[in-house]
Amino acid sequence: MKPLALAKSRLTAAVGDELRPRFALAFALDTVAAALDCPAVRDVAVVTDDPLAGAELAALGARVVPDSPAAGLNAALAHGACRVRSCQALAVAALNADLPALRPAELGRVLAAAAAFPRAFLADAAGIGTTFLSALPGTDLNPVFGGRSRAAHAASGAVEILLDGVDSVRRDVDTGADLRAALSLGAGPATAALRGALDVVPGH
């Protein structure tokens, strides 16, 4: 997770620069809370150097891992997977921190489907990016998030998970339209609490 001051820059046009960091934190809180509520999830680690985000996510029960590579998203995810696996062989999954409508049951279905493949991924709602990538024990995560990552993950040998009815796991938020779609799915409490502030942003 980027530092809040830098996170979700494309959302500025929809929510304003003052609210943008608050929404970024709310998205992460709702994502982590839902993941922790999924029975198939043993532990959640968040890679971030943001002190506020780290403190609030740790209070939910997440393990906070400093972004020591400081080399972008994919390096951070690989570092997080390595830290999680430092003591034992584990299946790991990388999940976007901007899934405010995430439902534990839907995440559980994705994890169950992913368990059939050494590496597996789920495309985002737009069908261009990726919101989820998993790797079984003994397999490197090898994340290639960013841009057209659906094609990049497929080219890397990961298997695409083809499931219906897991919209909450696909719905990441980068723009105002994405946020409205997530709210219509039913966002978690942290994001829902900011809906009123969104309604009063002029022109949105």
Top keywords for this entry?
Spore Coat Polysaccharide Biosynthesis Protein SpsA, Chain A, 4-stranded mixed beta sheet, two-stranded parallel ribbon, 10 helices, globular, disordered C terminus
Describe the structure.
It contains 10 helices and 6 strands; from the N terminus they run ααβαβαβαββαβαααα. With 204 residues, it is of the alpha/beta class. The chain has one domain: Alpha-Beta Complex (Spore Coat Polysaccharide Biosynthesis Protein SpsA, Chain A), CATH 3.90.550. β4 (119-123) and β5 form a beta hairpin. α2 runs parallel beside α3.
Number of separate domains: 1
How many helical elements?
10
Q: What is the CATH class name?
A: Alpha Beta
Number of strands: 6
User: What is the share of helical residues?
Assistant: 40-55%
- Rounded to an integer in angstroms, the radius of gyration calculated over CA atoms is 16 Å
The CATH architecture comes to Alpha-Beta Complex
So what's the overall shape? globular
Into which percentage range does the β-strand content fall? 5-15%
In CATH, the topology is named Spore Coat Polysaccharide Biosynthesis Protein SpsA, Chain A
Average pLDDT over all residues: 93
How do the helices and strands line up, and which of them pair or pack?
Elements: H1 12-15, H2 20-36, E1 45-47, H3 51-60, E2 63-65, H4 73-84, E3 92-95, H5 104-114, E4 119-123, E5 130-135, H6 149-155, E6 159-160, H7 167-170, H8 176-185, H9 189-192, H10 195-199
Parallel strand pairs: 1-2, 4-6
Antiparallel strand pairs: 3-5, 4-5
Helix pairs in contact: 2-3
